[in-house]
Amino acid sequence: IRMNYVKLSAKARQGFAYAWPYREVIEQVLRGYAKMINGPIADTVIGYDPSIPTYTTDLEKAKQLLTEAGVKEGDTFTYLFASGDATDAAMAQLFQANLAQIGITLELQQVDRAALIELAYGDSPPEERPHFMSGGWWPDYNDSWNQMYPNFHSESVGSKGSNSMFYQNPEFDKLMDQLKVAESEEEIRELTGKIVKILTWDDPACIFYAQIKKATVLQADIRGFIPNGIYINSFNFHQMWREAT
């Protein structure tokens, strides 16, 4: 869940991350077809660091951080997602219910997917964007830099990439520039760990709530299908065939 970097302070973003209903989303909404994740890097991607802790729902901690950030009971925040997406709607409603328990109002806004994409990839300023926006991403190839650069680098804001909530952290950018030219897997993992800690804990960009498990259903006579654990929903049809009966 992308968080507005301009409208929300780092402490507020940390507080909202503690208010997310992680277990309920995975068990009830996603029906177990997901697992907890500690940041934007899936455990199948080079650079993944398992030592980084994950958030858990803690409404007392959330309220403490939000109060320290200047958020008051009765304050209203906006959450935008695509209409017709029952999964996004269910998650948003659970988040809304958690925030209501600590006196915060979450206004749910639905727009058609075309409008959501236009906003996400357009150049409207962050002040005109919601506080939260649903989203998801997978890399073009097995590389942590490729996963994070389009979403969080300052060069990727607005129509220049997928940094739809205008995340801009100089230390993140500096480490990302080093990661781009890193040569060894050890160096990639070390830099990625530092970067993910910034994105998740020090200066959160998103609420990273799950790594989705994908299932592909094939007819019994289809052969040659090899699932791609990185670029999902891809099918190498030239390697697949239907077995003659």
Largest sheet: 4 strands, mixed
Q: Which architecture of the largest domain does the CATH hierarchy give at level 2?
A: Roll
Helix-strand sequence: EHHEHEHEHEHHHEEE
Distance between the termini: 47 Å
Text of the CATH class of the largest domain = Alpha Beta
Output the structural class: alpha/beta
Radius of gyration, CA atoms, in whole angstroms: 19 Å
Shape: globular
Q: Which percent band covers the strand fraction? A: 5-15%
The overall number of domains is 2
Reported by name, the CATH topology of the largest domain is Dipeptide-binding Protein, domain 3
- Biggest sheet, spatial arrangement of strands: 1-5-3-4
Task: Describe the protein's architecture and organization.
The chain has 245 residues and is an alpha/beta fold. The chain has two domains: 2-213, Dipeptide-binding Protein, domain 3; 217-245, no CATH class. Helix content is 37%, strand content 11%. It contains eight helices and eight strands; from the N terminus they run βααβαβαβαβαααβββ. The strands form three sheets. It has a four-stranded mixed sheet with strand order 1-5-3-4. Strands 2-6 form a two-stranded antiparallel sheet. Helix 1 (10-19) runs antiparallel to helix 3 (59-68) and helix 7 (170-180) runs antiparallel to helix 8 (185-202). The termini are far apart. The model has no long low-confidence stretch (mean pLDDT 95).
